[in-house]
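Hi everyone, sorry if this is the wrong subforum. Our group has a chain we'd like a structural model of before ordering constructs, and none of us has done structure prediction before. Sequence below.
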Amino acid sequence: MRHVASRSRPRPRLRRGRLIAGGLSVLVLAVAVLGAVGIIPVQDASIITAAGADDIGSRASRDIADRSRRESPPPSPESTQKAADSKPSTSNTPTTPPSPSVGAMVGAEMPAGTGKGKRVVYALRDNHVWLVDAKNIVKRSYPVSGTKFNQVSPGNYDVIRKRRYTTSYHGTERMQYMVTFTFGKNAAIGFHDIPISIASGKPVQTPAQLGQSLSDGCVRQAPVDAKALWEFAPPGTPVIVLA
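Answer:
Right subforum, don't worry. Here is the predicted structure as tokens:
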């Protein structure tokens, strides 16, 4: 009798464990159902369900999410267009046109009475040059730096010769695109670019100083303008010098 009684003692503990396990299953199922109907937040229900080793709550959460997507109305064409319009433009088109070159800008109106046909017009006082074609159309207009010693007088001249490279009469500066139209006391006088000091390798003036009388006798031009006049005026081209 004692032997039989000793075998029957563990049974209450086994039943208690089964009751606890069954209670947990009911709790997990209840949480899943409450999460599905919206009483418990879906996120909390999913966490509790995962802890209970059952995916019932997870399936309920997925069902609710799918139902929400199905019930949400698709975006209207108007709202889609407004969203597209609100995005910043990525176009590479510049907002402002590029600035023209120095020689392309017409900085002053050419005085009347300069003749007809293809010619170079140079205003001493205004330090300005115009290139005029055979149809009397101004093709280029730009500021220059002329003589500060009055070595050039108003009058009609012609291009005498052209030299691609040259140096100043005192041998301290080098120039390009020399277009000679007269002669001074010491050397030929013509149009060329801004001289470069041979000693320093730097220009003797800046392009911003064009428009001032700074040279000994020649007419200094920006490099782009010096090249344009070189190509425009072959020997024999009239040069009209104004006061």
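For your construct planning: The first helix runs from residue 2 to 7. The two ends are 146 Å apart (CA to CA).
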